[in-house]
Amino acid sequence: MIISTLERTLVYPAPPFGRGNWKTTWIDREDVRFASRGPGRESVTLHGWYCPHPDPKHVVLYSHGQSEHVASLVNVAARLQESLDASVLLYDYRGYGKSSGWPTEAGCLADGLAAQQWLAERTGLLPEQIVLAGRSLGGAVSVAVTAERGAKALVLESTFGRLTDVAAYKFPWAPVRRVMNERYDSIERIGRYEGPLLQLHGTRDRIVRAKFARDLFRASPSRQKKFLVHRGGQHHDAPPLGFYSKMAEFLAEHTEPTPGRSRRVAG
Predict the structure, then answer these.
(1) What is the pTM of this model?
(2) Are 50 and 87 in contact (CB under 8 A)?
(3) pLDDT tens, position by position, 101-119
């Protein structure tokens, strides 16, 4: 489906390539590339950073927000790796960073599935044994991938229930619910996942109001779900450091460590 230039600019404001530290050396990472296909079966090449842990308890696939790319996420990878004893894959959607192509909803969802499959093959796990984490737009991608293939746990930060709700709040004078092509209806999709769910949202988020995150949380049928409040947190703020320890506690309570095969392959 063709999306307008204005809609593409608003939904996918990919940051300039020069932003971030592409040459960072203080975290052990591997440049990886893998193929992804879209609804028209066109093939694009995605780029990511794989950050292995020598003895992982978890394997995490992290999907970033609409104005980020992997070079701006080194701290996120390090905190996930250290706090969770996790191997982590950061990747860029098509049209972001070093990934080829142009972003669309269908394309980004295909990219999330391709990243999950690559990580499963690399670590010797099944796709549903991987923790899926995502921020903002990346949360919507993570929900869609989880609904399609499952996950060990789903962790969402500053994420909305429907993109059309966010757009209607920002542009109340425009018929966005009728004309938008990129909808990211996570409320419909999350109903197909009953596993562990952890959400974090800031009380001062003026881009994705907390109500939209609460709507998504209520739509989840999971009996193992928890909503964390970031007091004073705004949309682009980094999560409080305590969030990572609470994530570790949540995963310890509701999941099992990765099988031994993953430990050998990822190390």
Answers:
(1) 0.94
(2) yes
(3) 999 999 999 999 999 999 9
